[in-house]
Design goal:
Number of strands: 12
CATH superfamily of the largest domain: Alpha/Beta hydrolase fold, catalytic domain
CATH topology of the largest domain: Rossmann fold
Number of domains: 2
Number of helices: 11
Distance between the termini: 59 Å
Strand content: 15-25%
Order of helices and strands: EEEHEEEHEHEHHHHEEHHEHEH
CATH architecture of the largest domain: 3-Layer(aba) Sandwich
Largest sheet: 8 strands, mixed
Low-confidence stretches: none
Structural class: alpha/beta
CATH class of the largest domain: Alpha Beta
């Protein structure tokens, strides 16, 4: 018995089920990201899901990834589950769902992420998304700039919350799944863990951590992840004004004691603190959706509640939901939220 190749065939389900729509896997060159301080590529992937029957003037939803998210991770399949593109394809199969493009944006850095902000220590990721990606998509696909939504989880949820406040008028709907917020709850407790990790494994030094990380055969998140994450957040929230390509940490590396002036710089980037100052930018949103798992491990359920409270103080219409779940394994939550944004944008 001989094995035979099937020419020009796809494997079919469960490996490669046929999609009704299509996924354009584009590659773009960014002027904004050229010469960024980390030397990260200015050439970036950009994925666009297009349902059948999409017409010019359709809404468009932008999807942002969490910390360490590389765009090609959207292609991965969790065991016994559809990919995100298969989930979207199934969602758009319902005739009552309006047609819309869904764009997956890469804002990865070699430190693991960018928080979607402009930073002299990371690069200009707000400008990349808002000034380059958005007009590129509108030009290429004819999407309506007045009907843009943005969504994401964790750091991506943070981006979905802050980009509409930083760039008013560019987005008309948002969904934040366990978005980073209420930093004294989700970040501050990690500082003491980072100090112990650095002391016990890296001679109390980030320089040593980066040397060992570069030499490591695999990325062990339990060893490297927490310390790298806080360093990256510092690069986004508190770059050193005297050495802008480096961050200032908001805690002492020997004791974990807060360095209050730096910590205040972090808090200025907390959505809970941004909303009283910038929340009017969200007032005209057609849909604001907040959600998190009840046992979210970084306690971002409490952050989502705090964001909801601040929005309520300003009288900004929104919905807030807690669901049974943690921080991971919630890809199934994205299509229903995307659907809600699209319906609101299509009204």
């Amino acid at each position: 018995m001989a094995l035979k190749q099937v020419p020009d065939a796809v494997a079919g389900p469960p490996w490669q089920p046929a999609l009704r729509g299509r996924v354009d896997q584009l590659v773009v060159d960014s002027e904004v990201l050229a010469d960024n301080p980390l030397g990260d590529p200015a050439r970036r992937p950009l994925y666009v899901y297009l349902p059948p029957g999409l017409e010019p003037g359709a809404p468009v939803i932008y999807m942002l990834q969490g910390f360490t998210g590389q765009l090609d991770r959207w292609l991965a399949r969790d065991i016994f589950e559809p990919t995100i593109f298969e989930r979207l394809d199934a969602m758009f199969a319902a005739p009552e769902v309006p047609r819309a493009a869904v764009v997956f944006v890469d804002a990865w850095t070699s430190l693991g992420g960018s928080q979607f902000l402009n930073s002299p220590a990371l690069g200009r990721y707000t400008d990349y998304i808002c000034d380059e990606v958005l007009p590129f998509i509108d030009s290429r696909y004819g999407t309506d700039p007045g009907r843009r939504g943005i969504a994401g989880k964790s750091s991506g949820g943070y981006g979905a919350l802050v980009l509409p406040m930083l760039r008013p008028g560019l987005f008309a709907a948002l969904a934040a799944h366990a978005g980073d917020a209420l930093f004294e709850v989700c970040c501050l407790p990690e500082f003491r863990t980072v100090v112990r990790t650095l002391r016990d494994h890296f001679d109390g030094s980030y320089d040593v951590l980066f040397e060992r990380l570069a030499a490591a055969e695999r990325f062990d998140f339990r060893r490297f992840g927490g310390a790298l994450e806080m360093y990256t957040y510092a690069a986004a929230y508190s770059p050193d004004p005297d050495n802008p390509v480096k961050p200032l940490l908001p805690f002492d590396l020997r004791t974990g004691r807060l360095i209050q002036p730096v910590w205040e710089r972090w808090l200025a980037w907390d959505p809970v603190r941004m909303i009283p100052e910038r929340g009017d930018a969200l007032r005209g949103m057609r849909r604001v959706l907040l959600e998190a798992g009840r046992w979210d491990e970084p306690y971002l359920d409490l952050g989502a509640q705090a964001v909801s409270d601040e929005l309520a103080k300003l009288g900004i219409a929104h919905t807030f939901e807690l669901f049974d779940g943690g921080h991971g394994g919630i890809n199934y939550r994205y299509p229903p939220a995307i659907r809600e944004l699209i319906v609101a944008l299509d009204a």
